[in-house]
Amino acid sequence: MVASAATRNVDTYIHVVTSQSKKDKYTQEMVEDQMEVMNEAYASMGFSFTTAGVDFTVQSSWAAATPGSNEEIDMKKELRQGSYGDLNLYFLSDLGGGLLGFCYFPTSNPDANMQVLDGCIHLAGSLPGGEVNGYNEGMTAVHESGHWFGLYHTFEGNSCSGSGDQVGDTPIQSQPTSGCPASQDSCPDSPGTDNIHNYMDYSTDECLTEFTSGQSQRARSLFDSFRAGK
């Protein structure tokens, strides 16, 4: 096996944050199932994930945090662990803004604030066995972690021209996929059809099965440059 394809292990910290009324809704077993999903999805990419810590917190305002809010910052100041090369996954029972999740991309020389904010936030109902229909098999965390590794959406730019997701082997795509269609072609004048089975699209969980070789190369390169050993 060549060095570039060697498996990179990522220490991963899981934080489940809920309101009082939902404190028993999300379990250690669901967290363990999520980590199995992560390892299965990223195996072909050359990444593995080791659970370095799991905590459960009851704090209603944190459980409803939105991107860039004081609640997000306060929560992460209290809970985030590890280095810039360690992955922190937050599962919030009442994530605001109508979001399934969001995550921070890698950057060179992150300042102290970016170090704190780093990681991925998800609606806790997207955990395997959760209550979000169509999105409760753990693929939201797979998708958001793709951003943590530096991957864009397959429909980045929402256009049939331009650089798109900056990966050469994902066909150009101008809109996200909804549901799990048999096929979709949002850019019929360009080669290939839409990436409906790609983890970086918006298809329902049952539809998502793959990263491409180009995505794998990009993720490994950015991880090595911006996160490994940092």
UniProtKB/TrEMBL annotation:
Assigned keywords, A-Z: Disulfide bond, Hydrolase, Metal-binding, Metalloprotease, Protease, Signal, Zinc
Residue ranges occupied by any Peptidase M43 pregnancy-associated plasma-A domain in the UniProt entry: 134-221
UniProt GO BP: proteolysis
InterPro entries: MetalloPept_cat_dom_sf, Peptidase_M43
Domain of life of the organism encoding this protein: Eukaryota
CDD domains listed in its UniProt record: ZnMc_pappalysin_like (cd04275)
GO molecular function: metal ion binding; metallopeptidase activity
Regions of compositional bias (Polar residues) in chain numbering: 171-195
Stretches the record annotates as Disordered: 162-195
Cited PANTHER family: METALLOPROTEASE MEP1 (AFU_ORTHOLOGUE AFUA_1G07730)-RELATED, PTHR47466
Family statement drawn from the similarity comment of this UniProt entry: Belongs to the peptidase M43B family.
Protein name: Peptidase M43 pregnancy-associated plasma-A domain-containing protein
